[in-house]
TrEMBL record:
Name of this protein: TVP38/TMEM64 family membrane protein
Organism annotation: Tumebacillus lacus
Keywords: Cell membrane, Membrane, Transmembrane, Transmembrane helix
Lineage, uppermost ranks: Bacteria, Bacillati, Bacillota, Bacilli, Bacillales
Record carries keyword Transmembrane helix: yes
Coiled coil (residue ranges): none
Recorded superkingdom: Bacteria
Membrane topology: Multi-pass membrane protein
Predominant place of localization: membrane
UniProt-listed PANTHER family: GOLGI APPARATUS MEMBRANE PROTEIN TVP38-RELATED
Family designation: Belongs to the TVP38/TMEM64 family.
Subcellular location: Cell membrane
């Protein structure tokens, strides 16, 4: 029963973001205290499903609030959303998934490795998005990873991308070239990091 309630709540959160995204963006662009709260809420919703590209929303927030305040707002929303999704996965899916994992020794072995290296694993995949963020939240939630480990790794790992996206957005009105170059350099760096990671994994399989 818990898994169905959790799944239904996740779907409801995604539906809210999808149907109200234009209203969310309008309120964010209006500025002010309400805009801060709406920004945090909308970013938290995007954690569940990218209704809009996160870099675009973080850029809009950066354009309204500036680099530092905008980064803090986006980071707060991203971490809050990740923690909520982590908690929902732990409440709704953990017992169910663990029942299956117990039947497969290899899966249990992978889970044990992940739990032993949880902080570095989560941190790495936050910085280098080889695995989609929602999947990291769910996998962490159904494992034995502690709340603090998940929180700390997520907080630190989200900072680089949020700073870049927010800075690029804050500069768009003044210098589109600076904004585009900043975003482009970051995406190239991420592409290279992902390529190197996948290449190493492929070589390991061949050995």
């Amino acid at each position: 029963m818990k898994k169905f309630l959790t799944a239904a709540l996740m779907i409801a959160i995604i539906a809210l973001g999808y149907w109200q995204k234009d209203q969310f963006i309008a309120l964010i662009e209006a500025g002010g205290m309400v805009s801060v709260l709406v920004s945090i809420l909308f970013v938290a919703i995007l954690v569940f499903f990218p209704i809009m590209p996160f870099f675009l929303v973080a850029g809009i927030i950066g354009g309204v609030f500036g680099t530092w305040q905008g980064s803090l707002i986006s980071l707060t929303g991203a971490v809050v959303g990740a923690l909520i999704m982590f908690g929902m996965a732990r409440f709704g899916f953990r017992e169910w998934i663990q029942g299956y994992i117990q039947k497969y020794p290899k899966a249990k072995e992978y889970e044990g490795y992940f739990e032993q290296n949880a902080f570095l694993s989560i941190l790495f995949f936050r910085v280098v998005p080889v695995i989609p963020s929602p999947l990291i939240n769910i996998l962490s939630g159904i494992s034995k990873v502690s709340w603090f480990t998940f929180f700390a790794a997520t907080l630190i790992g989200k900072i680089p991308s949020i700073l870049v996206f927010t800075f690029a957005g804050s500069q768009f009105g003044e210098s589109k070239m600076t904004s585009v170059i900043t975003f482009g350099v970051y995406m190239v760096a991420i592409f290279i990091a992902v390529f190197v990671f996948l290449r190493k994994q492929e070589l390991k399989k061949q050995q």
